[in-house]
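Most newcomers find our protein records easier to grasp once they have seen one. To make this concrete, we reproduce a full record directly below:

===
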Amino acid sequence: MASCGYTPAEIDEMMLHDVVNLFAYWRESPPVNEILKCVYRIERRPEHRRSTGDMDPSGIGGLLARFPTGFVRLGDDV
């Protein structure tokens, strides 16, 4: 879901004048989550997951893929 509350399918179906009106509204009242991301410089990093397959019953391969350096720091997605 986009930060505006619309699903991607709903956004695809919007008419141009609806999008222009939405942008005009955002100039006056931008989405709070977007403001906070800018203020605190928060960005969601894409997860890089390796396929562990069926040969990893312990799940250690998934942990290694998620924390390739072996270090878990405060602020890392857990």
Q: What stands out?
A: The two ends are 22 Å apart (CA to CA). The chain has four helices and no strands. Residues 1-45 form one domain.
